[in-house]
Design a protein that fits this description.
Low-confidence stretches: 28-33, 317-323, 645-659
Distance between the termini: 111 Å
Bound molecules: adenosine-5'-diphosphate
Shape: rod-shaped
Structural class: alpha+beta
Mean pLDDT: 81
Radius of gyration: 48 Å
Number of domains: 3
Number of strands: 16
Largest sheet: 6 strands, antiparallel
Oligomer: single chain
């Protein structure tokens, strides 16, 4: 404010210097026909019918001052002109805008400077020539445009001083719209002045034309305003909908509400319950959110909860009395000079209120049009805040799900660890029992004891394989299995497995054969033990679920999109698996026939372990076939190959037979 006062004094000083007798020389040829007092109400009227032109972010006030200015320049002595100008315009401001304090002083000094410089320029160009000559018109045009230029520059300086930043856009807009309006008004005023001198009886007719012009002009302005308002709201919607996080949306709502309403402060108030609110506002350009306890206090903006926009005006508005600068930063609870508040629609069950306080320097108080704009703004803000809330809810839900998933994973890991520990603990005494039973076999036993021992060993063996499966499964699940890679002979490995299962195949009357396709590498690198475990399981299953016919193991290379490896296919002519079961048999404890009366023994863990191991080795396992037509299990492993293909065992196929 101090700077504004300084500017005011400087302008008044310059105006006084110019207007002092002697500086503004008395023009000899002026036509002092009109009494200067007659122009005072004209200047006052011009100030009252000020028209605001809204542009992108600002609104510029344009008076019809050019008309009395032209008449004054043409018919009055310079000092009379300055006096009539300042007096009339100040009366207009006090009556229409009830303006007092710094704003009034600033404007008075500005009027004085405008009038003095305008008169100086006019008479300097006119040099006593006829006011209605071409020189006279030029002098008027220059003087009036100069006046508008000074006005735009002073207002821009004042805004820049109060906002502590130069806004070139304001100056540009003011000049653009200001000079166009000033030019039209000056031409009309020159017509009036000419008629006053040439044919005063035609003045009423001209009055009608001027009134019609003003009506048309105002109509155009209101259309223009509507358009500008729509544009501003559109920008608001656009910005809030492109915001990502809830905080960003709240920040945009607060920032844009203050900017659009030309308010010094804006608050978004969220009601947590009947007494507590959360208030978001911009402090030093950063979003600050704080909780407030209303504790029964009443605030002017609370009335907006009833549904309507509330307009607040302190009894001592700045127009009447300059409000003393508050000791500390004003807050939501401090009483503003003026303010608007509206509850947000579309805010769901939570209640929100949008509050803007105190107009910035260049604006008058909030008018009824501002209330309309604010209402629309609140409606859009409601939608934006609702969106912010649902984004926030989704984020909270995602967080909950994440922690639930972490907890479930931890529980599952703990379960696997427990299973692994238990299986290990059970296996140790079990192997001792089996070892003891083997020792018992070598002692003198009668027939019954022999049979019981055999049963003991059989059940013990099954139990041991079950415990080992469990141990394997839980170890892999809890991530405690490591692979030991080394080079091994692939055909030899397959042959060993087939050879080991041959006696069983023979017993069941089945054909068991294997073959290796030419081109398959012989020496490969991988974890032989794990490959054996998977292949053994597949061959065991194939023999178990095949009542007649045979089982065939095929080994061949594969190459898919640059992925290379070895494919081990175990095909049988057994009972087969239907499509639905094929999708689930790789899950732990899944069996096609899960009933207690099932024909085939087993735990349902074998294929789950096979799948886990295959994936651990970077490969896949799959099944195909149909009930009654046998099953084909395909194990694909990226076993890295020795460049030299198998030679010794590359004979097309080798049959190891049954019967
Ligand atoms: P288990 O054999 O111990 O029951 P697995 O995990 O090895 O457990 O197999 C799961 C189920 O998949 C078996 O119970 C069986 O129903 C089905 N299955 C596995 N291999 C074959 C096969 N070669 N032919 C038909 N069914 C099979």
């Amino acid at each position: 404010m101090k700077l504004i006062w300084l500017l005011t004094v400087a302008m008044a000083g310059v105006a006084a210097l110019i207007a002092l007798p002697g500086v503004l020389a008395e023009p000899g040829a002026a036509v002092p026909d009109l009494t200067w007092l007659a122009l005072v109400p004209l200047f006052a009227l011009a100030e009252v019918v000020v028209v605001h032109l809204p542009t992108q972010r600002n609104a510029h006030g344009h008076t019809l001052r050019e008309i009395p200015a032209v008449l004054g320049l043409t018919f009055l002595m310079p000092q009379q002109y300055v006096t009539a100008y300042v007096l009339g315009a100040v009366v207009g401001l006090v009556v229409a805008a009830r303006m007092r304090g710094a704003k009034l002083a600033f404007n008075t000094a500005l009027f004085a400077l405008e009038a003095a410089l305008g008169a100086l320029a006019y008479h300097a160009i006119l040099q006593g020539a006829d006011p209605l000559s071409l020189t006279g018109w030029m002098a008027v045009l220059v003087a009036v445009l100069l006046t508008d230029l000074i006005s735009a520059a002073a207002v821009t300086t004042a805004i820049s001083l109060t906002e502590r930043a130069f806004d070139g856009e304001v100056l540009h807009e003011a000049l653009r719209w200001g000079s166009a309006a000033a030019f039209i008004n000056t031409c009309v005023a020159l017509l009036v002045a000419t008629l006053v001198l040439v044919q005063p009886s035609a003045l009423p007719l001209l009055g009608v034309v001027v009134v019609l012009l003003v009506i048309g002009y105002r109509h155009y302005i209101s259309l223009f305003r509507g358009h500008a308002r729509t544009q501003l709201l559109y920008r608001f919607v656009d910005r809030t909908s492109s915001a990502g996080s809830p905080e960003e949306i709240v920040e945009i709502v607060v920032r844009e509400a203050a900017a659009l309403m030309h308010a010094e402060r804006a608050y978004l108030v969220e009601f947590l319950d009947d007494h507590r609110v959360r208030c978001s506002s911009l402090v030093h350009d950063t979003l600050r959110t704080e909780s407030l306890d209303l504790g029964g206090q009443s605030a002017w903006w609370l009335r907006s909860l009833d549904g309507d926009v509330v307009r607040h005006e302190s009894p001592g508005r700045p127009g009447h009395r300059e409000a003393p600068a508050p000791a500390q930063e004003p807050t939501l609870m401090s009483v503003p000079r003026e303010g608007l508040a509206a509850s947000l629609r579309g805010g769901g069950s939570t209640r929100y209120v949008l509050v803007v306080c105190d107009r910035t320097f260049e604006k008058e108080s909030f008018g009824s049009e501002d209330v309309q704009v604010f209402e629309a703004l609140a409606a859009h803000a409601g939608v934006a805040v609702e969106r912010a809330r649902s984004v926030g809810d989704l984020e909270a839900l995602a967080e909950q799900l994440e922690s639930a998933r972490d907890a479930a994973l931890a529980a599952s890991n703990a379960k696997s660890m427990f299973l692994a520990n238990m299986s290990h603990e059970i296996r140790t005494p079990l192997t001792t029992v089996l070892a003891a039973s083997e020792l018992l076999e070598d002692t003198e036993l009668d027939e019954l004891q022999g049979k019981l021992l055999e049963r003991l060993q059989l059940s013990g063996g099954l139990l041991l394989s079950l415990v080992e499966s469990l141990l394997d499964f839980s170890r892999i699940e809890s991530g405690h299995t490591t692979l030991h890679e080394a080079e091994f002979d692939l055909p030899a490995m397959v042959r060993d497995i087939v050879d080991a299962s041959l006696p069983r195949a023979r017993r069941q009357g089945l054909v068991l054969e294997w073959a290796m396709e030419p081109g398959t590498p012989r020496l490969v690198t991988g974890d032989r033990t794990r490959v054996v475990q998977v292949l053994n399981n597949l061959v065991d299953n194939a023999l178990k679920f095949t009542p007649h016919g045979g089982v065939r193991v095929d080994v061949r290379p594969y190459c898919d999109d640059g992925d290379r490896g070895v494919q081990l296919v175990v095909a049988d002519t057994g009972i087969g698996i239907d499509q639905d079961d094929q999708a689930t048999i790789f899950e732990a404890f899944r069996q096609v026939d899960g009933s207690s009366t099932r024909q085939y023994a087993g735990t349902g863990l074998g294929l789950a372990i096979c799948k886990q191991l295959a994936e651990l080795m970077g490969g896949t396992i799959s099944v195909s076939g149909a009930p009654g037509e046998g099953s084909t299990f395909t194990l694909r492993l990226p076993l890295t190959a020795d460049p030299a293909p198998a030679a010794a065992d590359s004979d097309p196929s080798r049959q190891v037979a049954a019967h």
